[in-house]
Every structure is written in structure tokens, then in C-alpha cells.
Design goal:
Length: about 425
């Protein structure tokens, strides 16, 4: 599959983006562990979240699909999951692969977790090691550093643990294991990662205390089913935000976007570059804030991103780099080594592909240096099997002279199956 994109005239109109991927995963997982029926609206029916749904179904959870985006999850209670009669396939989803061991380690079952070739290359020790400290029995390739992972459920005990890297996946895995464990589990992360789990656990009645970047959960408290309405994914909106910023004459509104402060680093970074971005009609539903985002073409200047903003925009750095190619001056991205162990090595993949389009971009071990503005030219580029690389290149193609071809673009369906359709709806060539 390939995506052919020509230089755009302008990006305009009003769009919506599909449901937040992180919140969709959590709604299915936490809803499954609750008592009662959780009603979910705004679910993201994309590859990664469908992987989570299929795994929970194999674990004995009944999920009614009222439509693609509306689910009824028949929760089985904290320790009610059943032994699956087959391997749990997490596809391309790192979130599913890392959170499941935390949920399964405290159940009375045996399960094997594996995923695609990218998943089997991604580091798993970050969850396996602390879970073992809680008493979990987990085996895996290279002593648990890589999937497939095999989990034999047991009785867990609460621990105190400092996360070496800020990671919402690891934090979530440990908090959910802590929910099933005896006693308290206290974890601290070096800087704040997305807090959707904390917000949802609060909504479902867990006994969780949050103080800065320290989280304490009491084991054994039963969760109660809830109504969960999921806002649009700011990570998906980011592609259109950057598109409207860099294509001359653009003006776009994006409705109902999740604007949780742990996810809006991209807006802060772009505003710092001079972007004309406005948030209107802020409201909170299901413990998650959302707003309408208004964005128009803006001349951009360079900036530096590093430190605490990095986890707040980690998934948006690829499209941020595209914006930086159009900004005046030297943009520096540092402290983002995690990008090397995402769905692809995003630093290497982006640098290689954007260079083919004429970008002035230098790879750092933990980031990139981008000099702008450059006039990009259409090129044949590769997705590296990574949905966010494919969509970022598509955005770059909107300002490139001529035509670009993004090869192997099928991976876009991992997070945003309707991306091309929405792009066609707001793009005049
Ligand atoms: C996610 C957390 C982040 C992010 C990923 C989704 C989540 O990863 O990059 O796309 O839903 O918890 P880390 O936990 O590795 O930071």
C-alpha cells in the first residue's frame, strides 16, 4: 500500500479526529477489571486498540460492540480473568504488550503474550523487572527482555519502585499490578508521563493517591463500572495542526480534542515557535478535559525542546520535526532517546526520510537538530512500518514541490484508519 500526496493549496474547514488511543486501551482494560458493565463511547477502532480488545476477549471478557466506537464491557472483577486457550497477540501495540503483564501477573492463570516483529524488538525489561520485584512469575526471551513473554499468575505484594524513565506504559502496568497486590504499591517517575490511568482509576473508585510524580495505590479495592466518553486524540490532531500551520493560507478547526496537560506539550512547543493555535470551549467529561482547537497558517521560528516537555509530546516529535523544517533557524530536540525504541527508531527513520525530501537535519543520539526553513521537494519515502512516521511524511509532502509517495503506508491503520479520508476532506490541491 502507498500514499500519494501532492503539494497542497490550503488546509481548511472543520474536522474531528478519532478517539484517543491511550484512553481507549485503558477503558477496555480497566472496564474489564471492574464489577458491572462499563459503557464506552468515542472508542478508537484502530489496530492497536482492537488488539487490546481481542486479548481481553480471549481472557474471558464479554464485549458488546454497539457500533465501531461504542462498547459495552462486561467487567469480570479484579481477579476474574480466565486462562486464555491461545497466545495473546498484541499486534503492533507496545501499550498492550507492556500493560497486560501487570494485569495478568496477579490472576489465577497462565498466558503467553507476543506481537509483531516490531513488538518483539522492543524493550520489555522495564516492566518485567519491577513486576518480578512484586513476586510476578514472568519468563521471556533473553531473560524477559523481549517478547514473547509467558506469565504464570501468582499472589503479588506491593513494592516501592522508582522508574528509571518516565513511561506511562510502565506506570500503568505497575499501578494495575498494585491494584491486584497485597498492601500498597508506591511508584515514582522522573518526570510526569501521561496520566490517563490515574484519572480513569479515580473515576472507577480506586484508592489512589497522587503527589507530583509519586503514585500510591492500595491493593484489593474493587472497581465500579462507569460511563466513559473518550475525546479525540491530540496525537492524531497534531498531524492536522502542523499541516495547517505550515501550508500557506490555511485555517482549520478540530473539534472535541483531548487537551489533558500531560499530552499538550506539542501545543506549547508550537506556540513557542510562533504558532497561531487557540483552545476554545474547554470542558471535562469522564475526568478528561477536551476543547476545540483553532489553528491557522503561521510563520514559525526555531526553538529547543528538552526536559519535562519531552514525555508530554513524545509521540508528536516526528510531526514536530516536520514543522521545524519550515521554521526559521535551528531547532534542537534533546533528551528524547526513547524515540529510538518506539514502533521504529524514529530518530533514524525521520532523519533518513526527511533528508530525501531535502530537509537539513542532523541526528543526535537523543534527538535531532533541524535547520530551517527549507523548500522540501516531493520524493519516494518509506514509513519504516511506523504509523506516525508515515503520517508525518504525508504532512511534509503537503509543502513539498511536486508529488511524494509514502511507501508501506498500511501501518497508518494502527492509530488512524481514516487519516487519508480526513486529509482529502480539508485539503485543496
Ligand atoms: C503510551 C505511552 C507512551 C507513548 C505510547 C502510548 C500509553 O509510551 O509513547 O504511544 O498509552 O501509555 P511510554 O510509556 O513508553 O512513554
Amino acid at each position: 500500500m502507498q500514499l500519494v500526496i501532492k503539494k497542497a493549496q490550503s488546509i481548511h474547514g472543520s474536522i474531528t479526529v478519532p478517539g484517543d488511543k491511550s484512553i481507549s486501551h485503558r477503558a477496555v482494560m480497566i472496564g474489564s477489571l471492574a464489577g458491572g458493565v462499563t459503557h464506552v463511547t468515542g472508542f478508537l477502532p484502530a489496530g492497536d486498540c482492537l488488539s487490546t480488545m481481542h486479548c481481553l476477549e480471549l481472557l474471558g471478557v464479554k464485549i458488546d460492540k454497539l457500533s465501531e466506537t461504542e462498547l459495552k464491557i462486561h467487567g469480570v472483577g479484579l481477579r476474574g480473568l480466565k486462562e486464555p486457550d491461545d497466545v495473546l497477540n498484541t499486534g503492533n501495540s507496545g501499550t498492550t504488550t507492556r500493560i497486560l503483564p501487570g494485569i495478568l501477573a496477579g490472576q489465577d492463570l497462565f498466558a503467553v503474550i507476543t506481537g509483531d516483529e516490531s513488538i518483539r524488538r522492543r524493550p520489555m525489561a522495564r516492566v518485567v523487572e519491577p513486576l518480578r520485584l512484586m513476586g510476578a512469575e514472568i519468563l521471556g526471551r533473553e531473560d524477559g527482555r523481549y517478547a514473547p513473554l509467558a506469565v504464570k499468575g501468582t499472589i503479588l505484594k506491593g513494592i516501592r519502585y522508582d522508574l528509571p524513565v518516565a513511561s506511562a506504559q510502565v506506570k500503568t502496568s505497575l499501578l494495575l499490578a498494585g491494584l491486584l497486590a497485597d498492601g500498597d504499591t508506591v511508584i515514582t517517575e522522573p518526570s510526569k508521563s501521561r496520566d490517563h490511568t490515574e484519572r480513569m482509576l479515580e473515576l472507577f473508585g480506586a484508592n489512589l493517591e497522587v503527589e507530583g510524580t509519586t503514585y500510591k495505590i492500595k491493593g484489593g479495592r474493587q472497581l465500579i463500572a462507569q460511563e466513559v466518553d473518550i475525546p479525540g486524540d491530540i496525537s492524531s490532531a497534531a498531524f492536522f495542526i502542523v499541516a495547517a500551520l505550515i501550508v500557506a493560507g490555511s485555517s482549520l478547526t478540530i473539534e472535541n480534542v483531548g487537551v489533558n496537560n500531560t499530552r499538550t506539550g506539542i501545543l506549547d512547543a508550537l506556540k513557542d515557535m510562533g504558532a497561531n493555535v487557540e483552545l476554545l470551549g474547554y470542558e471535562e467529561i469522564s475526568n478528561e478535559p477536551r476543547a476545540l482547537i483553532k489553528v491557522g497558517h503561521s510563520p514559525l521560528r526555531s526553538t529547543t525542546i528538552e526536559g519535562e516537555i519531552i514525555p508530554r509530546m513524545i509521540d508528536e516529535i516526528p510531526v514536530f520535526a516536520v514543522a521545524a523544517t519550515q521554521a526559521k533557524g535551528k531547532t534542537v530536540i534533546r533528551g528524547a532517546k526513547e524515540l529510538r525504541v518506539k514502533e521504529s527508531d524514529r530518530i533514524a527513520a525521520l532523519s533518513a526520510e526527511l533528508k530525501k525530501m531535502g530537509a537539513d537535519i542532523e541526528e543526535l543520539e537523543d534527538g535531532m537538530v533541524i535547520n530551517g526553513p527549507t523548500r522540501l521537494k516531493g520524493a519516494r519515502v518509506k514509513s519504516h512500518g511506523d504509523h506516525r512516521i508515515a503520517m508525518s511524511l504525508a504532512v511534509a509532502a503537503l509543502v513539498a514541490e511536486g508529488e511524494s509517495v509514502i511507501e508501506n503506508s498500511g501501518c497508518i491503520a494502527i492509530s488512524y484508519p481514516s487519516f487519508e479520508k480526513t486529509l482529502l476532506s480539508c485539503n485543496s490541491y
